[in-house]
Design brief:
The chain has 380 residues and is of the alpha+beta class. The protein contains six helices and 17 strands. A hairpin with a 5-residue loop joins β14 and β15. 41% of the residues are buried.
C-alpha cells in the first residue's frame, strides 16, 4: 500500500468524473444499425423463447441487468410501468439477466427474485454473456430500444433518463400507427444525489463499490493504478486459502478491513469457522454515504445465517436501519440471510461518515458492498 496516497487522489478524480458523466455520450453501438442477436439464453421466465427476428413489427426494449445490482433494482419500477402501459400497444420488454456473480446463474435464484418483485415481462438468463457480447455491452443496467424493422434507435447506460426513454418508446410506437393517445405519459422526477457525495477529499467522497473476491482485488493490486478493495496486506499472500487476518487499525474510507480467519475466494470472502464470539472474526468498513447494501449468502450446507450489523461500534437504531434489518428482543441489529441476495443494511437520515462492522458466530460469504447518496431516504 505504499502507493496509497497518490492512488486515493485518482479515486477522487474518478468519482467526480463519474458524477458528471453523461452516460448517453458513450455510443457503443451506432444507432439505426441492425440490432444484435439474443443468443444462448439458458432459461426464459414469463415467456417462451424469444428472438429479435421473431419480434419484427414490435418495439423491443432490451434491459441488461442482474438481480443483486442496486442500480438495476432502482430501474425496475420504470420497466414494469412501461410494460404495463404499452404491452398491448406493441412494446415488448425483455430483461436480459447477465450475472455478475456465479450464484446469479442459478435459475431458482432469479425466479425467486422475479416473483417476489412482481416482474411480469420476459426475462432471459444470459449466463454465458453471449447476448451481452453481441450488443458489445459493458454496463449494468443498459437499455436498448429497437424499432419495428429491427434497428436500434436509442440506448442509455446507467440509471436515469426515464422521461426521455418513455418519449422514445411512444415515438416508435406511433411510427407503427399504434394509437397511444389515451395512455398518459409518465412524469418521472430527477432523483437528486446529495451534493456532498463528491468532493476533493477522498475521506468525504461517497464510498466506491467494494468487492471482496480475489479476482478483482489481485487485478487492481497488480495494475497499481487504483488500490484494491481489501486493505490487509496478508490477503494478497495466497489465493483460495484460509488466512488469519489482523485488523491493522487506522481505518480509511474506500477500503474493507478484515480480522480473524477468512477464506479468500475468487468472488468473495468466507468466514472460515464458527466462533463463540462475534469479535473473533469481523469485517470493518469505514464509509461516507447515506445507505449501505451488501451482497451476501449462507453456505451451501446452511439454511440461513444471522449476521450482526453495527454502526460506530453500536447496534443500529431504527432510524439507522436498512429495510432488511431485524432486531432481537435485546436490541441486537442483524439480517436473516436465507438466500444469495442484496440486503439493505444501513439507511441514514442524511449522508455522513461512519464505520460499519459486520460479524457473525456462523460462517457466511460476503461478495460486495454498495453505497448510496440519494437525498430521498426511500432510495437505497
Amino acid at each position: 500500500m505504499k502507493y496509497l496516497t497518490s492512488i486515493l487522489i485518482c479515486i477522487t478524480i474518478i468519482f467526480i468524473l463519474n458524477g458528471c458523466e453523461d452516460n448517453q455520450s458513450d455510443n457503443r453501438l451506432k444507432l439505426n444499425q441492425n440490432s444484435q442477436k439474443i443468443s444462448d439464453i439458458s432459461h426464459w421466465i414469463n415467456t417462451n423463447p424469444l428472438t429479435l427476428e421473431s419480434l419484427k413489427g414490435k418495439v423491443v426494449l432490451i434491459d441488461f441487468w442482474t438481480y443483486t445490482c442496486i442500480n438495476c433494482i432502482r430501474t425496475l419500477d420504470y420497466l414494469k410501468d412501461w410494460h404495463s402501459k404499452y404491452k398491448d400497444s406493441g412494446l415488448v420488454v425483455i430483461g436480459i439477466h447477465t450475472p455478475e456473480f456465479e450464484f446469479e446463474k442459478n435459475i431458482n435464484n432469479v425466479k425467486t427474485f422475479v416473483e417476489s418483485n412482481k416482474i411480469e415481462y420476459a426475462v432471459g438468463l444470459d449466463n454465458e454473456y453471449s447476448t451481452w457480447r453481441s450488443f458489445n455491452n459493458m454496463y449494468w443496467p443498459s437499455k436498448y430500444l429497437i424499432d419495428q424493422t429491427g434497428k436500434i434507435q436509442f440506448q442509455y447506460f446507467g440509471e436515469g433518463n426515464y422521461n426521455q426513454t418513455e418519449k422514445k418508446i411512444r415515438e416508435l410506437l406511433s411510427q407503427s400507427k399504434k394509437n397511444i393517445s389515451h395512455i398518459p405519459i409518465g412524469n418521472y422526477p430527477i432523483k437528486p444525489i446529495d451534493h456532498r457525495a463528491f468532493s476533493n477529499d477522498y475521506l468525504q467522497t461517497v464510498t466506491r463499490e467494494l468487492y471482496a473476491g480475489y479476482v478483482r482485488n489481485f487485478s487492481l493490486a497488480q495494475q497499481k493504478e487504483i488500490p484494491p478493495y481489501i486493505y490487509n496486506n496478508e490477503y494478497y499472500s495466497q489465493k483460495d486459502s484460509v488466512i488469519n487476518f489482523k485488523d491493522p487499525g487506522n481505518h480509511l474510507n474506500q477500503f474493507i478491513y478484515l480480522h480473524g480467519n477468512w477464506l479468500n475466494e475468487a468472488q468473495n470472502i468466507t468466514k472460515a469457522n464458527n466462533s463463540k464470539s462475534i469479535h473473533e472474526s469481523y469485517i470493518a468498513i469505514p464509509f461516507f454515504a447515506r445507505s449501505v447494501n451488501m451482497v451476501t449468502k449462507p453456505l451451501s450446507n446452511q439454511e440461513s445465517v444471522k449476521i450482526e450489523i453495527m454502526l460506530n461500534n453500536k447496534y443500529l437504531t431504527k432510524s439507522q436501519a436498512g429495510t432488511d434489518i431485524k432486531f432481537s428482543e435485546n436490541g441486537i441489529s442483524y439480517i436473516h440471510v436465507d438466500q444469495a441476495n442484496l440486503y439493505n443494511i444501513i439507511s441514514l437520515p442524511e449522508i455522513q461518515s461512519g464505520e460499519l462492522t459486520i460479524s457473525s458466530q456462523e460462517k457466511f460469504s460476503l461478495f460486495a458492498l454498495t453505497f448510496g447518496a440519494y437525498v430521498d431516504t426511500k432510495i437505497n
